[in-house]
Write a structure and sequence with these properties.
four-stranded antiparallel sheet; disordered N terminus; 2 domains; Methylamine Dehydrogenase, Chain H; mainly beta
Length: 512
């Protein structure tokens, strides 16, 4: 059984690649291969991105992490001993229990590659070359069944919930393909559009979109895949493609890898890791602050060897064998035993230790972290809310505005300064939040009356951890003041509720 390497060509032999730092296309099953395959980037992280702690070398008898995979709010790590530890929680609208610290899957003992597909389906390539899959269950038993008819596998990727496997001799299969959908292949990689990119030994690149395999035109000298539909050529120059057509690379010249989340990206270069894009949940890993168009260095507690990104978080595998993660943590996807978002990298505890950490649902730290909002500067014409809808008390209220509307968030816990967007779960533990969406997408928010239907529209949604979001059928409110800092008004009586509730939300500045 040949084990999978971070080097694209290490799987089936040399393919003309020079001995400089290489792209990270897949995990390795040998720590010494990692050290040779990827030159550890230097540490020039920004001075304002000091990590909270130093990564420690694994203790005697411990195993290093070789691979991390993320799907939404669930993450799994594969170790040198073939074991797999996972953490987090799927979000399907039912608020399933969170496992905020890594738990070991006793069903997996000889993993050489792992993958998380749609609905948190776990795929495991075992030491005997077979592929097993099953629904990940962090609180019970993950029942894995073997894929029949496919043997001698070294890697797997998922197109939705369809596994795409690579065999040791270079054939690419899906369970439904009687013949290979690709041959002479050396690497597989995901693209952001969901397709599976395939690197061939002769330098060609093809991709599988779930129906057929097509080839990138005029590309016959690729030596490694990286980023989103990008490759390194034999000359060392990076090149990308879209719909099978070559386009120039835009980014750092010394790029080793690039990963994408929702509205943010992170680059691995010879100098370390730098991220750009949305930062309302700390996705950039450089501390709290506004969104950034220019990449900012991430202060990691060790040298990064590879990167992986979820929708709103990211993780780096370090040369120490540990894993550092940052960003959103509402489902425990950072694995630190809490549900607190982390704008700076934290080392995921218990991944390299012989025994996993103590179980945690992450609620205690979150509930203790609620703080009162700063209401200083509230205009004289505005009133502080005493209660909004089902919330007994409101300690934070923020407004996120655009040219075509606004989203107001009220919660009985401290919201991040940038508020929340549609891709961010506001709920932490047993706490709740109210989302008040204003506008019909055609005009800016101004004074006046807003209802569920009409020229000025409003939608009121209650978010809670233990149930799906509840949207009010009737909404009736008046906006009384809108300035550069505040949106204030009155929530009117609806459905016989004889109460007029004032509300006020601090407007967050537009991201630069």
């Amino acid at each position: 059984m040949i084990r999978w390497s971070l080097v694209a060509c290490a799987l089936v032999g040399a393919c003309g690649k020079s001995a400089k730092p290489t792209r990270s296309d897949a995990p390795t099953a040998d720590a010494s291969v990692v050290a040779d395959a990827v030159k550890p980037p230097g540490g020039d992280a920004g001075a304002d991105a000091v990590p909270p702690g130093r990564a420690t070398a694994p203790t005697a008898g411990a195993a290093k992490v070789l691979q991390v995979v993320i799907a939404d709010r669930v993450a799994c790590a594969r170790r040198t001993d073939g074991r797999v530890r996972c953490w987090g929680s799927p979000w399907d609208g039912r608020g399933l229990p969170v496992v905020a610290a890594a738990v070991e899957l006793p069903e997996v003992a000889t993993a050489v590659a792992i993958e998380l597909g749609a609905d948190q389906t776990l795929y495991v390539v075992t030491g005997d070359g077979t592929v097993r899959r099953g629904a990940l269950d962090l609180r019970g038993t993950t029942e894995l069944t073997q894929l029949e008819g496919i043997d001698d596998v070294v890697d797997v990727r998922a197109h939705g919930n369809v596994p795409v496997v690579l065999t040791r001799v270079g054939n690419v299969f899906t369970p439904a393909s009687a013949t290979p959908i690709g041959t002479n292949a050396v690497a597989l990689r995901h693209a952001t559009d969901g397709s599976i990119q395939v690197l061939h030994r002769d330098g060609r690149v093809s991709w599988y979109d779930g129906r057929r395999t097509r080839e990138v035109a005029k590309l016959a000298d690729a030596t490694a895949l990286f980023g989103d539909r990008c490759a390194e050529r034999r000359t060392g120059a990076p090149v990308c493609w879209d719909s099978g057509r070559i386009k120039p690379w835009v980014g750092a010249a010394n790029i080793l890898d690039r990963v994408h989340g929702q509205r943010f990206r992170c680059d691995l270069t010879a100098s370390g890791v730098a991220c750009a894009g949305a930062n309302h949940l700390g996705q950039l890993g450089a501390g709290p602050g506004p969104d950034r168009k220019e990449a900012k260095s991430v202060g990691l507690p060790g040298k990064p060897l590879s990167l992986v990104a979820g929708p709103r978080s990211a993780c780096a595998v370090l040369d120490s064998g540990e894993v550092a993660c940052w960003g959103a943590n509402d489902g425990g996807q950072l694995g630190d035993g809490t549900l607190l978002d982390r704008p700076l990298p934290i080392v995921v505890p218990g991944l390299t230790t012989p025994a996993p950490p103590a179980p945690s649902d992450g609620r205690a730290q979150v509930q203790a972290s609620s703080t009162a909002m700063d209401w200083s500067g509230l205009p004289a014409g505005c009133k502080r809310p005493g209660a909004i809808a089902t919330l007994p008390a409101v300690v934070s209220a923020y407004a996120w505005t655009t040219a075509r509307g606004a989203s107001l968030w009220f919660a009985d816990f401290a919201l991040p300064p940038a508020g929340h967007t549609a891709d961010a779960r506001p709920v932490r533990g047993a706490q709740r939040a109210i989302e008040l969406a204003l506008g019909n997408g055609r005009r800016a928010i101004d004074r006046g009356r807003y209802q569920a239907k009409g020229t000025r529209t409003a939608r009121l949604t209650t978010h809670a951890a233990e149930r799906a979001p509840e949207i009010a059928e009737r909404v009736d409110l008046v906006i009384e003041l809108v300035d550069k800092t505040w949106i204030c008004g009155q929530l009117l009586a609806v459905d016989g509720v004889q109460q007029r509730q004032p509300f006020a939300a601090r407007i967050q500045p537009r991201a630069r």
